[in-house]
Amino acid sequence: MRIIIVGAGSVGRYMAAQLSKSGHEITLIDNDNKAIGRARLDESITVMFGDACELDTLARAGAVNADVVAAVTGDDEDNLVISLLAKQEFGVPRVVGRVNNPNNEWMFNEMWGVDVSVSTPHLLTALVEEAVNVGSFVRILTFEHGRTQLSEVTLAEGSPAVGRQIAELNLPRETTVVAIVRDGHVVTPTPELNLLVADEVLLLIGGDGEEAVRRALVTSRES
Amino acid sequence: MSLFSRRISGTDQQTTVSDFVRIADAPFREPTTICGIIVRMRAQPGEGPVNLEITIEDPSGTAVVVWTGRRSIGGVGLGRRIKIHGVACRTPRGATFTNPAYTLLPQH
Description:
Strand content of chain B: over 45%
Helix content of chain B: under 10%
Oligomer: heterodimer
Distance between the termini of chain A: 43 Å
CATH topology of the largest domain in chain A: Rossmann fold
CATH architecture of the largest domain in chain A: 3-Layer(aba) Sandwich
Number of helices of chain A: 6
Distance between the termini of chain B: 32 Å
Radius of gyration of chain B: 13 Å
CATH class of chain B: Mainly Beta
Number of helices of chain B: 1
Strand order of the largest sheet of chain A: 3-2-1-4-5-6
Number of strands of chain A: 11
Number of strands of chain B: 6
CATH superfamily of chain B: Nucleic acid-binding proteins
Order of helices and strands of chain A: EHEHEHEHEEHEEEEEH
Radius of gyration of chain A: 21 Å
Number of domains of chain A: 2
Largest sheet of chain A: 6 strands, parallel
Order of helices and strands of chain B: HEEEEEE
Shape of chain B: globular
Largest sheet of chain B: 5 strands, mixed, barrel
Number of domains of chain B: 1
Strand content of chain A: 25-35%
Strand order of the largest sheet of chain B: 1-2-3-5-4
């Protein structure tokens, strides 16, 4: 795939290196000479100096043929402008925007051409929550503009799901159990699988199924 | 000349029969002009992204047009003939234009 990454900071350079290793064609853009200099050390990546908030820069980088544009600068305003230009002027199929300040997260949606937003502070909060909370409902990731979420519940003693089969949970229609992590091992969630205390249940929840999932898996005290 | 500057110049008012392509023939990822009748309109109510989304149709097919940041545009209504100039992106719903320039055309 042809991927344009804007922002040659540590995030952008790391992404470029990893994606290039996986065989993708990467163009990295930044308007800071120092960052560009560091990025040039990796010869497998095309590095371009320029302001990606300008149409011409994106055009020179080949946005018209790009499969993905990732705006990962440290500036939310720039990321939004780049996302909108990529979507509106070049019809890029997948635009990824990095959220730096969580207060700005609400803008990173289709209104600004963003298909996928990644908020590091939000992700960190979710992971910390996931690490310390047993029994509560933790949202790990949301995608499709928040319509679908990957969530996790570690079953506490007294959870209504303990001792029951997955099929008996009556989960909402748009919800699916994607995996159970039991004693550090991934268990395939068959309908007949009996759930035990301390099972980490990973679910994909679409639509407004969250409340029903909470009722099925979380003890009433915790929810 | 980029699409951007063309839009700002605002001179795209004349419509002749030959200056647009059939929706089914519209190329992806390059500036193009299509023409059709608005057969569906959708504005998202409540919170969330404020978008106006319309579907336009010509005998060859349909295309989706999205204008961001607004819920309505004066003159853009069901049954209206409209000319769209912008860049089409391939999506599961077919060709989708984001924030294209538009010209309302006289009714038949």
